[in-house]
Amino acid sequence: MPSFDEVLKEAGEFGRFQKRVFFLLSQTGITFSSLFASVVFLGRAPHSFWCRIPGAAELSERCGWTLEEELNFTVLPLHLGNESVSGECKRLDVTWDTSVSCASPLARYGNHSTGNLPLAPCHDNWVYEQPHSSIVSEYDLVCGNAWMLDLSQAILNLGFLAGAFILGYAADRYGRILIYLLSCLGVGICGIIVAFSPNFTVFLIFRFLQGMFGKGTWMTGYVIVTEIVGSDQRIVGIVIQIFFTLGIIILPGIAYLIPTWQGIQLAISLPNFLFLLYYWVVPESPRWLLTRKKGEKALKIMHNIAKHNGKFLSPHYSEITISNEEVSNPSFLDLVRTPQMRRNTLILMYAWFTSALIYQGLVMRLGIIGGNLYLDFFLSGAVELPAAFLIIVTIDRIGRRLPFAMSNIVASIACLITAFLPEDIPWLKTTVATLGRLSITIAFEVVYLVNSELYPTTLRNFGVSLCSSLCDLGGIIAPFLLFRLAAIWLELPLIIFSILAAVCGLLVLLLPETKGISLPETVEDVEQLPSDFGKCGKKRKHRDTNSYI
Length: 549
Fold this sequence. Notes:
Elements: H1 4-11, H2 16-37, H3 39-42, E1 49-51, H4 56-63, H5 67-74, H6 76-81, E2 90-92, E3 119-121, E4 126-128, H7 135-138, H8 147-174, H9 176-195, H10 200-227, H11 236-257, H12 261-269, H13 286-291, H14 295-308, H15 332-336, H16 339-369, H17 373-382, H18 385-398, H19 401-420, H20 426-453, H21 460-488, H22 492-507, H23 523-527
Antiparallel strand pairs: 1-4, 2-3
Helix pairs in contact: 1-14, 2-10, 2-11, 8-9, 8-10, 8-21, 9-10, 9-12, 11-17, 11-18, 16-20, 16-21, 16-22, 18-20, 19-20, 19-22, 20-21
């Protein structure tokens, strides 16, 4: 009986059918990256705001004050008396008396300097510069509540983490396309609820759920694409990352054109409902069907692929080799039970964690160093486009492992140099920082491809989901690590990023080289992959077909 790869070669490894499925599923990358980075625009900080005193509405009504006059009479005296207090997070804790004169509400305190008057922290009732619409002004995430904005991004990444485990497991057990479609539905529904959340608690709950379903769409779509193409065409796993970058580039345009945070949230959520139409055009992964002992359904899909590609399967292709490996519900133990699988899993988990932590850290760092938010964000996304092209021109020539390692090493060096460059040569500092962003983007994109190539079909979706869950853990830690360390020294996070990337660059050299090798079907296939650096080009015998690949 022919193997799946033999049948796929006969039907077309990357014909019209695969190109159509690839293009359709790649659109998920645009919506997922928009969700991933949306907090930058959903949580835009107001340019100015001030704390309104208790009873301000009654005072203003009695005296006929405008908001500007109220600011001058109740907040400006605080700043004049103590220049270190701006009136944003503290207010004068006094009794306001307008019975004598609305122009002198502090007259009862005589000649006392306002710097000697008692202060009280502001807990609510802030007034924001108009017009301003973000979750910061919607839910008062300022002053003592400012950390809640970081929490909202951490909650999203926690949703990604839950999605990696729950939906990764479900996709290996119940099918790729079913979980993909259910995830698209979940992202759309949760996104609408987030946009109209009556309070911050509801916002966090459904942002978590949207993150969980969002991870399901991205990871499952990615796995479907890599499983329906031949081993020589798996570079599509890198090309699909371009659509993730396109989402990053498009997002600032959406935010610029839509003035409210609710509108931005709906714009990045509603397109997911369109993906439900894929039910009629994207089939189940035939590789997955084979692992679930559904050879007839897999063969039917292969005939359909051949037909759309303008080819015809030979009559003797009436049955496809089904993996002899017993199918069971995957677990973490399956990923660490054998030596090669264990080493691959631990290194990949660290690589995912490092790539995500550094990538998100460098993105959020844009908000610390100032500048035009829309333009800076657009340019930072555009910088990522060359990453995919660099990978495409090198990865099939020199392999996966060397570019993977070098990109981490270059990112490490760039972060270290950026940290110690003086501020008076900003062009050089920006150039080196951009090189670091480009390098870690390459590492981030390569890990997707390598991860899917180092696990057997029976464990692939679960393995990719589990390892990439460390990416989500890095995303949870990134905002807190960045802002807390930056408060000590602005460049301190870059030092940490440099150390993490250097260690990762050395570790990935211990992974097997998968250039030109068919996707492993079983754990035994993974254990036979060459792991020594000098043997990356050695051919291995496929145990099902006795042919060399």
